[in-house]
Amino acid sequence: MKKINYPLKNSPKPSLYPSHPDRKQGNQKEPHHGLARLLSKAGLCSRTVAAAWIRAGRVLVNEQQVLDPEARFSPRHAEITVDGRPLEQPVRQVLMLHKPRGMVSTRADEKGRPTVYDLLPTEPWLAPVGRLDQASSGLLLFSNDPAWAQQLLDPQQHLAKTYHVQIRPPLAPEILQHMARHSVLDNRPCLPMLIHELRCGGKTQWLEFILEEGRNRQIRRLLQEVDAEVLRLIRISIGHLTLGDLASGQWRWLQPDEEALLQG
């Protein structure tokens, strides 16, 4: 077995390793990706874990050991093995979690805050499908299929997400109507959204937001602009998939037919 660790000084690269990620094959350009990214996109592990496997010599490409996680290959022409086993697309698994408030949606946190992964099984490898900020709670999805997750998050899908938000003080109907139709963030108009009152308890008000886009902290930022304080923010559905009676901090696997509910 030939061991290769790029870059090598004064040594030409064999044709297996393209000199440029968009090197032409015939008359067409063929995309090439870093090896760690290929492992991650296959749903086998995170890119960080993939890089560690590669540096440890556990990954072969076309029967040659590669120790550089950024070495680039064409997915169609790279036969990848990990610990001697061919890289195969695993069966897609999707998990839904009722994220509690106070947890961050990352695998590890540099500030030592609790993360959603403290609640999840250690196997298989899962990545969050979208995010909820630390102060928010509700429905959060995870999957071992990054390509499926990316398609689900594509803004062109116009996948509706529903949130229940408690604010203080209550807002007048005309303010809510203007926010729903004429909101602007970062000098760019927001897509129209549905906003209506669920109930009002004097000093506080519960609103329902239905959004077809997911800008960073969108609801919180819009309410901040009208001087409303967000007391609670709960995502209750994605597409037609609802949180239901899943208790805070609990999770379950989605059944295959439930994936059909995740449509715009």
Automatic annotation (TrEMBL):
It comes from the Bacteria. Its EC number is 5.4.99.-. Keywords: Isomerase. The keyword Isomerase applies. This is Pseudouridine synthase. It comes from Acidithiobacillus montserratensis. The lineage of its organism: Bacteria, Pseudomonadati, Pseudomonadota, Acidithiobacillia, Acidithiobacillales.
